[in-house]
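Input/output pair, single chain:
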Amino acid sequence: MLPPRKSRTIHVRHLALGGSAPIAVQSMAATRTQDVEATLRQVRLLEDAGADLVRIAIDSKADVEALRTIRARSKALLAVDLQENYRLAELVAPHVDKLRYNPGHLHHHEKAKPVEEKVAYLVEVARRHQLALRIGVNAGSIAPAWSERYPDELDALVHSAADHCAMIDALGFSDYCVSIKDSDPRHVVEANVRFAELRPDVPLHLGVTEAGLPPDGIIKTRIAFEQLLARGLGDTLRVSLTVPFDDKGLEIETGRAILADVEAGRFRSVPPNFFQGLNIIACPSCSRVENEKFIELAQDVKALTRYATEHDLTIAVMGCRVNGPGETDDADLGLWCGPTHVNLKRGSAELGAYPYAEILARLKHELDALIAVRATARS
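Output:
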């Protein structure tokens, strides 16, 4: 049996989250939102796989118009990811059941407006349309004010979430949950445990962001989920895998399999030296991705770098301009994809943008150079 949870119960329309409610499993449409037919097909695919909730990304008024059509043709519970433009909330609200905002993205628009006013606006929209909210904090996009105040990244993640909870509490709104995500499952566990010590009442959405390609991405996710669910933490979850669009149902199947195993007391041991050697992190793809070659690129990067598996290096492959620049900063080598070019970084230093046909050769050049530098340092 899963241990009892201390979180309160909130509602996404008819779906209860938290408290004694069943742990919900959700995913996110990976297609471009404006491609209505493809997005509807993906929503149905996820529903057929057993998704309780499907998230869609919105970044423009054209996306909103597509969402309007999707809503008219689907009865699925829909959450919307507001991306960098929180001001779209009132336009999308009539067509969804839940709003997700990232505290790290609120500063992109109306920079002179206090963050408290922006949060108040989101709460007012949610209250008026009877929507739930998710405060979604990601390690790759911590709000500047919090990263300056808390030099330790985990402290910044936890306090960003807790402070936003306090802002929403002050407005008398309680239908909200929190997610705190990182690409390292150990950080996910520690940050969520720390947050739950501060706010045991707040429902938690669990996830390892940019977990990457199977099977590694499944192992990383399982590590985090087993540790948190066994502590009575986690009210809804999402498995984030880099897989072809037609295989997105694997995220739901994996989430339910992990839940069933933990509930039955079946825990998988972490393979020896799993966190040693080459680590490839990759985002799960979503409607923010501007070129579907991103998934093929991630697979090619994994194949190309097999010769370097024993080296303690991290390569990040990100699919968009929203999360890509920030969430590649901590990697030794980072790639984030645009419509026609792939941006390459070494740490936080930008090396340039290269056509998809040229990026693998350039990546190998940089990887070989890093390996050589480390070999020289050891000798």
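The CA atoms of residues 140 and 327 lie 4 Å apart. The domain at 279-378 is CATH 3.30.413.10 (Sulfite Reductase Hemoprotein; domain 1).
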